[in-house]
Amino acid sequence: MEFFLPLYNFVLSTLVVSVLFVLWRVSFRCWISPSRAYQKLKRNGFKGPSPVFPLGNIMDMKRAIEEGSRSVKSDDESFNTVSHDIHSTVFPYYACWQRSHGKVFMYWLGTEPFLYIADPEFLKQMSSGVMGKSWGKPRVFKNDREPMFGNGLVMTEGDEWVRHRHVITPAFSPANLKGMASLMVESANKMLENWTALINSGQPEIDVEREMISTAGEIIAKTSFGISHEDGKKVFEKLRAMQITLFKTNRFVGVPFNQFIAPKQSLEAKKLGKEIDDLLMSIIEDRKTGIVVNNQKDLLGLLLEGNGGNGKAGKSLTTRELVDECKTFFFGGHETTALALSWTLLLLAMHPEWQDQLRDEIKQVVGDKKEIDATMIAGLKKMGWVMNEVLRLYSPAPNVQRQALEDIKVYDMVIPKGTNMWIDVVSMHHDPALWGEDVNQFNPERFKEDGLYGGCEHKMGFLPFGFGGRMCIGRNLTMTEYKIVLSLILSKFSFSVSPSYRHSPSILLSLRPSRGLPLIVKPL
Ligand code: HEM
């Protein structure tokens, strides 16, 4: 017995030390480190709602959402009137905190500090002198969205981001986008044939949001990695399933060990992520080895050409990186564009005079040619104003995020390294101080004289595609797709708001009509 005593003591003390170590790590991550960050932000003059450990302000946010939905019953009159004054509907907690703390304050998602910004001048001061590569992306979202974006462009940082952006940018050149236009026309025409069949069968009410998501999904899958073969279709379906798994659940982002709150969903997302990676990996390998002889001008083809072209180490992307970029294009690209088109159809349905104006413009630009092509895009000026006005009122990307990778000085305050930033685009786009008293009216003409900023009082007040070096890489692709799809729709159909439409914009990563967008569609 005495022989075993030293071994027993050793095992026991190792166990105690290990437990103490784990406890220390947990309390450092969950308590000590956030408390230090809290004190530092407070010392620097940043105020905000008081957080409660370990949920931060999450319960306040949930309460504000519940109160908002309780105050609007489904048969409520307010559903039948469409108000574009949406900030307090989609972000009730920020609207409430703004009233007490102004346009810059701090709040907490679990144990993660966030600096909320809805003041364009503060944003300008904060970002001047910080290069694209010096911004981080909130770690808490990187972990959470890993199965969707992997280490693709949206999430990379530092020199890695520079390398990815440098390799990918040429794929989005105007010449390459022109090559993709025919894929867009093809998918849009397929959708419109389907509409004609529905209308002929006596169903003039069409949920245009569902239609746009599916068509834009097909377009982005074609333009990213080619959907023409069966594998492409499978990827597309799995990518959609993963998005729904990740964003339709209550996951307490920012709360330590939150993966154990919805373990089934976390595992499901991981499983889907792995299946998508395997499918994309085999598509890429087939292209690389020439098994699929492909002269399609999709983004993957262009990136592979780029890779083969210079072949320099560090100037190309590995197969793993290409997989992540294909996923990033899909998620970053299809829903945002589809929502821009869906909200446009709603606003045009409410303003038939703008449908007429755009139809006249399309007739002038397309002339006696049979159909729109990429060379005509630039001529559709009024359509450009409409697109900007829709992106202002219903910005599909309702926020932009950053993380400070080093201390950042703004006026006499310091934003400490590690602080996350949440830039509230919806608030700035609906701020009467920036846009005037008609801020909540649909008025595309505000972009007539000032095509870039729509007469906004501050150049950082209109940010549908973000800002600085990290601005959206797909904005020209979106513009091309938007104008092609909208021109084809307007040339063949007119539309009005269905009596069954209920106006309920809400956030599910992007800003979407949560009860669909039924319109009554008529052939011209
Ligand atoms: C209406 C359509 C779109 C909207 C509103 C939109 C909006 C945005 C926003 C707000 C950002 C963040 C910018 C920042 O952090 O400053 C972004 C980044 C990005 N977008 Fe888009 N986007 C759209 C379409 C697309 C498309 C079609 C693609 C690709 C095919 C795409 C790919 C990306 C990528 C890869 C990034 C990350 C860029 C980087 O960090 O360097 N987006 N987008």
Automatic annotation (TrEMBL):
It is found in: Membrane. Heme binds at C472. GO terms for cellular component: membrane. Its cofactor is heme. Keywords: Heme, Iron, Membrane, Metal-binding, Monooxygenase, Oxidoreductase, Transmembrane, Transmembrane helix. One of its GO terms (molecular function) is metal ion binding. The chain crosses the membrane at residues 6-26. It holds the Pfam family p450. The keyword Acetylation does not apply. Signal peptide: none annotated. It is a single-pass membrane protein. Belongs to the cytochrome P450 family. This is Cytochrome P450. The lineage of its organism: Eukaryota, Viridiplantae, Streptophyta, Embryophyta, Tracheophyta.
